[in-house]
Design brief:
Blueprint (H helix, E strand, L loop, with lengths): L16 H7 L7 E5 L5 H10 L8 E7 L4 H13 L3 E6 L18 H12 L24 E2 L4 E2 L1
Parallel strand pairs: 1-2, 2-3
Antiparallel strand pairs: 4-5
Length: 154
């Protein structure tokens, strides 16, 4: 059976032109790697520059959320989008956790972790900002916006 995907992903610190050249002819899946904290920023940005010719839907960056303050995690999600990738938010769960529940730290809550993960993982960032996201909204992805000045939906 031919190898068509690097399912476990790549490490941004060790991903270089040689790795890209070796895997490019055989990788038919997404280019997966993690962006766990701000310390990895320079490595992830370098990888994203290398992957510019790759379509956005094939650049999957797993962004750990909840391990740093909310603003830092959201900034990392927005950076991935800005660099042309698709973020996949993963709430921080302790490795020795008996239940698969996020470890709430800093200024996060369980609800905010869930909301940010849904916004990112359902690709809602394509249709609305995180501030516009409403978990209880019963609208389509291309929701109309209310213009208070005209009193109409646009």
């Amino acid at each position: 059976m031919p190898l068509l995907d690097a399912n476990s992903g790549f490490e941004p610190r060790t991903f270089d032109d040689e790795v890209f050249a070796r895997w490019r002819p055989i990788n038919r899946g997404a280019w997966r790697f993690a962006y766990d904290d701000q310390a990895e920023r320079q490595y992830v940005e370098r990888v994203m520059r290398m992957l510019r010719p790759v379509p956005q839907r094939k650049k999957r960056v797993y962004v750990l959320i909840g391990n740093e303050p909310m603003a830092a995690c959201i900034e990392r999600l927005r950076e991935v989008i800005g660099w042309g990738g698709e973020p996949h938010a993963q709430p921080y769960i302790k490795l020795n956790a008996l239940e698969k529940k996020p470890n709430v730290r800093f200024d996060w809550t369980e609800t905010s972790l869930r909301d940010v993960a849904r916004w990112a993982n359902r690709y809602l960032w394509r249709y609305c900002t995180l501030d516009e996201y409403r978990r209880a909204a019963k609208t389509s992805r291309r929701a109309e916006r209310y213009d208070a000045e005209t009193g109409l939906f646009a």
